[in-house]
Amino acid sequence: MKRLMSFIITVVVLLGVMVFTTPGLLDKVRLGLDLKGGFEILYHAEPMETGGELSRASLQKTAESLEKRANALGTSEPEVTTEGTDRIRLKIAGVTDEAEVRKKMKEPAVLTFRSAAEGDAANTYSKIELVGSDFVENAAEVERDKLNQPIISIKVKDKKKFAEITERLLGKEMAIYLDEQLLSTPPTVRAVLTDGAASISGGYTIDQARELADTINLGALPLKLTEKYSQSVGATLGKKSLDQTIMAGLIGSLIILIFMIMMYRLPGILASFALILHTWLLILIFVIADFTLTLPGIAAFILGIGMAVDANIITNERIREEMRSGKSILSSVKAGNKTSFRTVMDANVTTIIVAAVMFAFGTGAVKGFALILIVEIVLSIATNLYFAHWMLTVLVKAGILKKSKQFGVKESDIRAL
Amino acid sequence: MRFKKEYDFVHLSRYFYVFSIALTVAGLIFLATMGLNYSVDFKAGSNVDVSLSKNLTLEQINPAISDVGISSEPSITIGEKRVNIRYDEVLESDQDAALQTAVKKLDAKASFEINTVDTEMAKELARNAIYAVLISCLGIIAYVSIRFEWRFALGAIVALMHDAFIVVAIFSIFRLEVDMTFIIAVLTIIGYSINDTIVIFDRIRENLRFGKQKTYEDLKILVNKSVAQTLMRSLYTAFTVFIAAFCLLILGGESIKMFSLAMVIGLLFGAYSSIFIASPLWLLLKKRQKLPVKSSTAK
């Protein structure tokens, strides 16, 4: 009786939690661009000048500046990631003027050193004195001055020009800009520099100094971005695909549940409950792990339910078989659970191996798909094996399932032992 | 719902071997001569899918988009409230903006899905996927050899390769469009195929424990029995997964139509190959192992 109570409580609580949380969870699932509209561009980055090298840091910097630019254009949640050694993927949702954004993004990051021109308001600097390419490539370094403060040493190519500028701006501020963004407090020119080398100090922390040095190096050798791949989905088209696919999924799932219940009666209802729990947990993981749901993802999701059904079918078919051989209901369920467990585990582990390899070696969509598959199989083992088996055993022990008819097995089919 | 009649699956498999080999050969011929009907994912170019609020005719669209300054000739397909325009050249962002403006003049509510691709990306995805499949075969061989024996591993892999190849072959023969999601579909099919095969192998392994099988006949009976015992499960599972894939095919979004179709075909072949290819193949391999034992006892 105690077992039955815990069964009822578990089922009721789970049902309550699922009914209560599902609408909120569904809203929180992050949708891919193919579902909500927007565009995605994969850039191939290469140094602007031939023979230049492409470092990990410069790629990272370029990605960051892309993100800053996208933010500056007022797009919602731009997503910028680096891939491999020379690629940057940019995802932007819901853009109205796509052409404009694409054009802006492609321009290389422009590093400028500026001074205040006449008529500039306080703290604005509009006269461009030096541009990124005036600096010696990869020469910006973080050093420490006599007081052990981090400073950035830089080198310019044209010594005469630099001497002229420093002479003219002696005692004045020279601001550093990346694109139109002012970086840090403008340092002041303290001496006329004739050897083309200078150092920038300004009470930076070591991290700030490093970042500034990286930016200057990047500015000296900006990366050229070419669009490798782009995908653009209109918001209404994405919505339509989503609605259709979800509808298809619901109808498909419903048919599967009806089939299970008609086929296996009460154990079929238990199996259906395990399947629903499985789906709910999967959505929960999507939200918690912040996975992005894309169309192939939904497809994998729905088809995964079909695969989870397999675990239940194997179990129930096995139990029926044991019953037909003349075993009692309890021992049939026990034997059925035990043997089907091994079968399903072997089948699932093999599939996980395939998925794990896909995850390790695949790229892009293949990787995402493999991840969902792995998560789904692990969940399926928990819900459709452990949980479903537990529910069945409890109901048999509590005496609720005591007739072979409840399992869809005819008395006449049962052989005497 | 059980088969009272005993089917000789092993015997039947002879005909199915012929069928599968014929289909494989046909597929190879088609692949070699015609290749696959690659979508824009595998061809450099731009694909513009427009969802409209009303139906447009070719006469309306052609003049509208001819003067947006795109040199290559587009191929236009008109559908129910949608138009597909495909260029063999990659559209620059201002060109695609001009195109959108031109179409919006005809239908202000038009919604666009524009895909532009450099072939390298899709090819790389496909290449990586093929490597992934080959490496995962090694994983399967290792796991199945440990848990079962190497003959099962070989049978499972032949069945898996068969299913994946047949789907590719059918897409080639019927000139169905192959896009990036097709790769995903083939990978899923491989997953199902292995799942399906292992369940039957598991039963063969279990039956092997009871009783000693001395002759080929014994083994044949054992395979037939194992397949028959798992047949209802195989059919039910194939049926439920088929339902899910079929619903996606009929009702799902346009962009996953080909994905669903590949899945439906693959699932049917997955169930078929587990019964008629994998298990009889194991028997064939097992027979070779048994033969020397038999001949030594005969002496």
Short synopsis of the structure:
Chain A: Part of the Sec protein translocase complex. Interacts with the SecYEG preprotein conducting channel. SecDF uses the proton motive force (PMF) to complete protein translocation after the ATP-dependent function of SecA. The complex is a heterodimer of chains A (417) and B (299). Chain A is α+β, with helices and mostly antiparallel strands.
Characterise the protein shown here.
Helices cover 56% and strands 17% of the residues of chain A. By secondary structure, chain A is of the alpha+beta class. Chain A folds into three domains: 2-31 and 234-413, Multidrug efflux transporter AcrB transmembrane fold, CATH 1.20.1640.10; 34-107 and 224-232, Alpha-Beta Plaits (2-Layer Sandwich); 111-221, Gyrase A, domain 2, CATH 3.30.1360.200. In chain A, helix 1 (2-28) runs antiparallel to helix 7 (235-288), helix 7 crosses helix 10 (364-397) and helix 8 packs parallel to helix 10. The two termini of chain A are 30 Å apart. The mean pLDDT of chain A is 80. Chain B contains eight helices and six strands. In chain B, the strands form two sheets. Chain B has a four-stranded antiparallel β-sheet. Chain B has a two-stranded parallel ribbon with strand order 1-6. The model of chain B is unreliable at 293-299 (pLDDT under 50). Chain B has two domains: 9-38 and 121-289, Multidrug efflux transporter AcrB transmembrane fold; 45-117, Alpha-Beta Plaits. In chain B, helix 5 runs antiparallel to helix 6. In chain B, a hairpin with a 2-residue loop joins strand 3 and strand 4. Chain B is of the alpha+beta class.
